[in-house]
Amino acid sequence: MTLWTEFEAAVQLHGEDPIFSRADSCSYSELHSRVRRRAAFFAARGVEPGTRLAAFASSGPEFFELHFVAAALGAILVPLNLRLAAFELRQILIDARPRFLFAGSTARSTIAAAAADIAGLEGCIDLGTSSGGDWNFAETLGREGDFASVATKEEQTAMLYFTSGTTGRAKGVPLTHGQVCAHAAAAQAEFALQPADVWGHFAPMFHLADGWATFAVTFAGGRHAFLPEFDAAAVFATIAREGVTLTNLVPTMLTRMLRVPESQRGDTSSLRLLLSGGASMAPELVQRVDDLFGCEYAQTYGLTETSPFLTVSLPNASVGALPKAERAPYRSLTGRPFGGIELRVVDAAGQRVPADGKSVGEIQAKGPWVFDGYWQAPLETAAAFDCAWFKTGDLATLCPLGYLNIVDRIADVIQSGAETIYSNEVENALYTHPQVAEAAVFALADEEWGELCVAAVVRRRAASGAVLQAPQLLEHCRLFLAGYKLPRRLKFVDDLPRSGSGKIQKRILRERFLLMAPNEFDASELRR
Where are the beta strands (DSSP E) in 367-448? Predict the structure, then answer.
């Protein structure tokens, strides 16, 4: 079972059915023919099983199609976060060594800075309508008769995602054909996917929070609707126009949609299931979402390393048997295990914690869509597993009815708007400024973003006597960090609290910041 054989099976069953929304009309058979022609074009240019094809693109039919071009060739697709700064993108390209890089027209300046002199990179393809790359995507159509099927095995890598590393350098997460197909099959069962479904790609496709649906919904014979970037009013309009039946909206998106005036919301009656994940959802917010959309809501939890889903808050047999009022609190929990996944919550000694809803331990997972190890990183791989169990690094409780609830993270990780920000990566960027003596980065709770990235900085006076200001420091950090990783609040302090062993006590800093009035912060409204 590979991505290509599963796609061809879907084409056989749903050939004349539309695969894209009304705005991007295309049938399964038409897409299949186009994919074969593109595969012939790139095969003639040396793309073979294992070749990396990188995509720096927003959600849309072209990026979607590229998933299946790679599958047809046995190549490895490398989706790249559009929010990355050129410095970060270059580090990933050096690690992945793609043969071709696909990008939208708006990314030219970033690509030019990031892709210069990357070993093995033979060309850039513009996914837009211009000819800014070596080729335009429309020019990459060979003859369908020249396409030759490639014998791909389940254990071969299909996708290579990069996730922020605790060392400040992104780690590659390879997912095999077998793992992605297994996850797709489980998602079809959990969410009862069917040909009548229309998935709204409103979260970025380069994130697995949305990317998983590219395969699962397609293999079920469903249809896809796209937005190149999130806009709350546009989401409402797309749901109404395309009859979207299910989608994933992270808490930040939901918060923004709740702010849209009622007159601009449009008809959302087609929605049957709304998923959310990437950050916790307060029960009060879940209730407001219920009132707005009137469809079934489910919280999900997972990681790039797990394709992504590990849990879903849809009712299991025990919760389903409860009266409706008693079921409600479980929907805002992290959830019960996704069908086919084994989970355990263990203490520091590796022993399972009791299912009492109070005892805290680390979530560990194993199953058919958990990855095998990091890209060319044996030491990081060894550290990530306890025998066959993948260590998520997330701390949770387990309730008597089998539902997990995440309470904290082992590492100093900030989850802001469903993006993962590692504090030491931000600290390292702050420390590159010559007038920064000390820095500590941590999370503060925020209604809109879930968590905010906050920095406390001790300044070092310059020889000239100039005093470092917050906007100046944040602009400096843009050289090293994507916009969403920049501190949303920055405070200059005289010193940082430390323990007897010299470790910075972020808990005390967090408490101090919570006691400060808003105007005591150096705050900047920054483009994410």
Answer: 385-386, 389-398, 404-409, 413-416, 419-422, 436-446
Domain ranges of the chain: 1-176, 413-523
Reply yes or no on whether the pLDDT at 83 is more than 70.
yes
DSSP 345-383: EE-TTSPBPPSSSS--EEEEEESTTS----TT-HHHHHH
Mode of pairing for the β-strands spanning 522-523 and 489-492: antiparallel
The class that CATH gives domain 1-176 is alpha beta
Model confidence at 40, pLDDT cuts 50, 70, 90, reads very high
Give yes or no for residue 527 having a pLDDT over 90.
Answer: no
Integer-rounded Cα radius of gyration of the chain: 23
Residue pair 405/399 in contact (Cβ under 8 Å)? The answer is yes
Percent of the chain with pLDDT strictly greater than 90: 66
The predicted model gives 8-12 an average pLDDT of: 98
d(CA 242, CA 227): 12
- DSSP reduced 3-state for 37: helix
Cβ atoms of 490 and 521 closer than 8 Å = yes
Q: Would the pTM of this model clear 0.85, i.e. be above it?
A: no
Helix (H, G, I), strand (E, B) or coil at 320: helix
Report the CATH fold assignment for 413-523.
Answer: GMP Synthetase; Chain A, domain 3 (3.30.300)
- 500 pLDDT band, cuts 50/70/90, is very low
